[in-house]
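Archive maintenance. Older records in this collection stored only the sequence; we are now back-filling the structure field for every entry so that each record is complete. The fields below show one back-filled record exactly as it appears after the update. Entries are processed alphabetically, and MLX interacting protein-like is next in the queue.

ARCHIVE ENTRY
Title: MLX interacting protein-like
Organism field: Neovison vison
Length field: 207
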Amino acid sequence: KTESRRITHISAEQKRRFNIKLGFDTLHGLVSTLSAQPSLKVSKATTLQKTAEYIAMLQQERAAMQEEAQQLRDQIEELNAAINLCQQQLPATGVPITHQRFDQMRDMFDEYVRTRTLHNWKFWVFSILIRPLFESFNGMVSTASLQSLRQTSLAWLDQYCSLPALRPTVLNSLRQLSTSTSILTDPGCIPEQATRAVTEGTLGKPL
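Back-filled structure field:
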């Protein structure tokens, strides 16, 4: 029994020493200041000291990273708040269009209609149908940048060019054409009326 206890004790001691050695070997591999010199013999006390220093350094780095991450989160929140504020201040139709640019575009449209109508009077009839779409496009679409052009153009298409939106627009244009010209009572006079409209500056106005 004594011999058996001695053997058991020796086995337990060997296992304990093996586990301790394995633990120190693991520390040598984990601690950068020790793993950088694997061939250097270091005492257990030095290993424990270097390990404690390494843990303290990691804790400091972790605290610094957490602080930096919190600062970044705060900056993101501030930027999001600023973006939301800017978006709230923008008009619902996108970037505001200056009256000067709006008038310039309208003048260009009228000049184009005049030129095409003098070539073919039927274009004037078409211009009456298309003018409301031009007016909405001119007032809504922004050319400040390619991105804003794309975004506002798509928004304009969704809002004004769907069938539910086009039907009343075209109906109103047809009503205007019927009430402001003789297309129903004397269609033969339409070419003359179209020419007079573009030469006398009455585009888009009742004749």
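Update note: The two ends are 127 Å apart (CA to CA). The mean pLDDT is 83.
Entry marked complete.
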